[in-house]
């Protein structure tokens, strides 16, 4: 891990891919916005100390991490599950960067901060890591599951620290049976924008939509670890990614002229996530969409707007996309990290106006792929086998056409593929529960367009 001085933050760039040409009367404008962050650059000559809270231990922006470990009674069946969870959490703690604030929460029908305790965060060093691992050895399984209480405790702990990166890692093996769905939803809503959270389901007795819903609300990742023996490697990888984040709370700001309507704003790579409803108004003509924390990475967003009708030869700025970093502690003037423009040009050249930009076409297909997988699996669960066959067949066709080989492999465990090109499939008579849950959990993962 590279160390970054206080004068360094990632350097952001914005690239816009679109076909700006519309036919006479055309109104819908689509663009793929690629945002790339490269670590260690400077942002417009602005010291990070002026754009975000303080660093920790002189090694990049200050970070705090809370690990939430399911300790409900079901974690004892089989007993190796609890042992693997303890070992995985210990491995993740071993990956913590020196100076990172951290805590461990044991989650049942209540939440308890088992290390360091008393509502505090520890500062990672050799001694505190050893103490935390010792505390983990004392964890035992017993009680119910109320994940909202875990999230609320993590939020209190994380926000007790003056750091810029706040991150949670949550592990569960069961359904959220000891609080109402409304209570969990309220907890997620109260934590949204305050910290990011990666969520993992271990085994096959948990609810996919609960785990993926937590990750989506808190701008993190979700996955299944069907075999508890794989937890240590997964937790270590998650923690390494968390330690690679260098700047938090970056917003995608969309400015539109009078008369332009926003249809949607979606993240489309590395996963599909609809951000449309998460807009907060920045001013009369602009709104911000949250993107969470960034390290050395690149993501793609699909912006779709409706412009007023115009005549041949006219052109307009349909939208301006900016990356915005809030001022210190949310106060002061936000900093613009990078910008890109979305244009509309009306033409009578039918070839130009009917051509679909390759990036737009690719990600429209990837978004549909995620949707039809969900619809197909839901149809299969409800006994609508004809509907399931049609939807999952379309998913196979889209995965094959786009080169999404990982999703194609997962689909092949649920359906027998007769002809991938036409989407001709047969439902398998028997499907392992872990295979079905893996497909559902990973349905939103996309492949990037070949540029």
From TrEMBL:
<dbReference type="Pfam" id="PF13768">
    <property type="entry name" value="VWA_3"/>
</dbReference>
<dbReference type="InterPro" id="IPR002035">
    <property type="entry name" value="VWF_A"/>
</dbReference>
<dbReference type="InterPro" id="IPR041176">
    <property type="entry name" value="VWA_3_C"/>
</dbReference>
<protein>
    <recommendedName>
        <fullName>VWFA domain-containing protein</fullName>
    </recommendedName>
</protein>
<feature type="domain" description="VWFA">
    <location>
        <begin position="64"/>
        <end position="247"/>
    </location>
</feature>
<dbReference type="InterPro" id="IPR036465">
    <property type="entry name" value="vWFA_dom_sf"/>
</dbReference>
<dbReference type="Pfam" id="PF18571">
    <property type="entry name" value="VWA_3_C"/>
</dbReference>
